[in-house]
Amino acid sequence: MRAADLSDDLERVLYTQEEVADRIAELAGAIDRDYKGRDPLLVGVLNGAVMTMADLCRAMTSHCQMDWMAVSSYGAGTKSSGVVRILKDLTTDIEGRDVLIVEDIIDTGLTLSYLVQNLRTRNPASLEIMAMFRKPEAAGSAVDVKYVGYDIPDEFVVGFGLDYAGRYRNLTDVATLKPEVYQD
Ligand code: 5GP
Ligand code: MG
Ligand code: MG
After folding, report:
1. What average pLDDT values come out for the chain (184 residues) when binned by 10 residues?
2. Which of 5, 109, 113, 143 is placed for a possible disulfide with 1 were both Cys, Cβ 3.0 to 4.6 Å?
3. Which cofactor does it need (predicted)?
4. Residue 107 catalytic?
């Protein structure tokens, strides 16, 4: 669905489907160049990174593999729980692999710093991060994100895989919600 289909719920569109696609194509180009001949393993963080992963890997012109992890962070609300737990682990042995974590959005950076620490203990050849969106708090944190789609303001956004209480992931644009949606 597009933002126009949800005009009752949405406050403001930050990025259209077309803008997101253009930015993904640029990042895919950079990743192709950086990983030339190395067959990277893209590790998507479920569920939010599904759209980013699907579009990123298809925009690439070189080989890659995919695997997925699920971690708990926000639960159903809009505030971080502060507790990160692995709900689903990788099925791939990443020792000696060039691993690129694919994330939807970084807010506090808590989820990612936990993931990076955890994956480092498995001795990958390299470990980098791609995030489609990044909020100000993460931009100033210790987590080093090599590929960032867009730096966005400190607002809760939905669409392009990002949910509120499980909904809006299939919105193709990225937008903020009207306050009354949170109050219902
Ligand atoms: P962090 O640990 O960096 O604070 O939060 C990371 C996770 O929280 C993201 O992967 C995402 O699932 C969720 N999250 C953070 N900010 C937003 C947001 O603005 N909208 C949505 N829908 N999820 C968010
Ligand atoms: Mg995520
Ligand atoms: Mg969520």
Report:
1. 95 98 98 96 96 98 96 65 84 98 93 92 98 89 91 96 96 96 82
2. 5
3. Mg(2+)
4. yes
- Cα→Cα distances 158→13, 45, 171, Å: 10, 16, 8
Choose one of 9, 10, 104 to mutate for the ligand 1 pocket test, by most ligand atoms within 8 angstroms of C-beta: 104
Q: Where exactly are the structural domains of the chain? A: 18-153
Which ligand gives the minimal distance to the CA of 46? Answer: 2
In the chain the beta strands, taken as DSSP E runs, fall at: 10-15, 41-46, 65-72, 85-88, 98-106, 126-134, 147-151, 157-158, 174-177
- C-alpha pair distances (Å), 65 with each of 43, 98, 100: 9, 10, 10
Closest ligand to C-alpha of residue 75 is 3
User: Does the interface ipTM go beyond 0.90?
Assistant: yes
- The answer regarding whether domain 18-153 maps to CATH 3.40.50.2020 reads yes
User: In this predicted structure, what is the pLDDT of residue 63?
Assistant: 96
Sorted by sequence, the CB contacts under 8 Å of residue 17 that are 6+ apart come out as 2, 160, 172, 173
